[in-house]
Amino acid sequence: MCQSGSEPTLFRGVSFAGMRGQFGRNRGSACSGIYNDYVNLIQGCGKKNRELLKLDDEQLAVLVFKVKPEPLKEGRYVDLQARMEYFSNELKKPKTTKQVLWEEYIAEVPDGYSRSQFCEHLCRYLNSRKAVMHFEHDPGDLTEFDFAGDPLYYVDMETGELIKCPVLVCRLPCSAYTYTEALASQRREHLIAALGRAFIYFGGVTREVKTDNMKQIVTKANRYEPRFDVLAEQWALHYDTNLTATRVKKPRDKAGVESGVNTTYYRIYAPLRNKTFFNLAELNQAISQENEKLNRQHFQGLDYSRYDKFTSLEKPCLRPLPETAFVIKNSQSAKVGPNYHVKLSEDDHFYSVPDKYITHQVVIIYDTDNVEIYLANHHRIACHKRDYRKRGYTTLVEHMPPAHRYYHVQKGWNQEYFLDKAGLIGENTLAAMKVMLSQKIIVEHAYQSCKGTLRLVDKYGQQRLEAACGRALLGSKISYTLLSNILSRNLDRAPLQTNIEYNIPEHGNLRGSHAYE
Q: Within this chain, do residues 40 and 184 fall inside the same structural domain, yes or no?
């Protein structure tokens, strides 16, 4: 029960219209309850009820509560407010700034507001017209997607170059469930493939997919009937969904994913800021882990997460996925060069084919992951994983001619290779190989000698090479030439002389112990 004498501000929520009705019904009678305070205030204002009933709420408030009426606006303020709609429209034009508008204003109204006050009033006017509407999205109804403004990077192991990767964010606005992936580029084929992977992550398809007029998807922007790329329409048909686009320069039309991009900066970019990655797959694995943490963490102040809301509310409403993913296939004609490689022009990358097809015309069929090369009769002669390195080469050893294959094998030589090969021949050959490798300051310089030694097996056999190495180990140095001479002269078959007697004949140059006295 409200007590008499309470502060009048406690009852300002009671309308004066209601008071009029009350006074009209109870003239001359005492009011009880909360109206007692109003009665006392009204009686103290010195006006009769008939006069008070003719006043509006604002006039009553000034009279009863002693509210000071708003001061009259000065002439320049009224003039500036009358110009605000014009200024607002002018700011939408390119290259127009507040500074330019103020200069035009002050030239027309010399005693007008200063620049700072002009900008203050203009900002207040613009902010008062930025009303935001809240939308309730139906579960399973919409997927919004957009590229984050900032990319992520990985380091190319071969060149040390930082490779920039655009980041795609897909979001279900009903549950805020989010999918994030770094792409090789923003090209159409990478974007469409990533959208398919987003649906796989969600476990179903929404009835509608919304973009912001990105050129990879929308060929002609229109508020009512945007025109989409043919491949994008085929993708939507494959997944049984409907493509839509926002109005031009209206990011709030997809406010859910705009908020999702901002959340991605704090919850995915920030934890990865001090980590280094060496390929796109490694980068995406780290993104996936942080994305899962984001979806599983509870909303602030709530006892459930994005994942909880998605699984309980939205996932049952998704349409089923198609049996196969949508794959974009492209084709290109090419001629096999003398280096038995063909060039995929889109990536400026070279892929090998068997050397016997040099100068042949071929057709390259490729998608985001694979590159296949066919002859004119549709016979496939090569298949590679797609590589996006510019001016790079992808080569299979089996495509090389014998000489090139030998050079390729030679590039992989090391000490372990030669020691393993020598150990298969015998203990003497292994010991001799160790000596040969230890005789060079730069061990790679001994590889040719070691290779020649192993090839002696082809001519003389393992037993003879083993015997030759046993004889060579009695000396201080071992080389391919030494072993070859032993074998060519059949010295490996000659018995070893273990006891050699030296008989020096007498002659005049001999000196005895007396010569040193």
A: no
